[in-house]
Amino acid sequence: RHFLGPAPRPIVLDRRGRISSLPDHWINLDCQSVPLVMQRLYDLQIQSVIVEGGSKILNAFIHAGVYDEIRILQSNSILNGGVKVPELPPLANSRLTMVNYE
Length: 102
What we know:
- 20% of the residues lie in helices and 18% in strands.
- It has helices at 34-43, 55-64, and strands at residues 11-13, 27-29, 70-75, 96-101.
- It has a two-stranded parallel ribbon.
- The longest helix has 10 residues, at 34-43.
């Protein structure tokens, strides 16, 4: 993850309740919205989060404005098809870091 410090504690957002078991150190949140997720994280005294997910979850956090930084990992490989990337708001460029991988 290219960050110094301890490995992040995995948190799963399972809004449909489909996950029945996880390793003990993981946290399963069944919240239905970003504000509820943020409240639960606050209640758990978690102050820093790395969001990795699909287009829907990334767009939800971006549109809620609950981010300090956006990192885009980009490869020179060309993929045919796939899922559309998240939509960045107009002011996101000031908090955007591009990381290229070969």
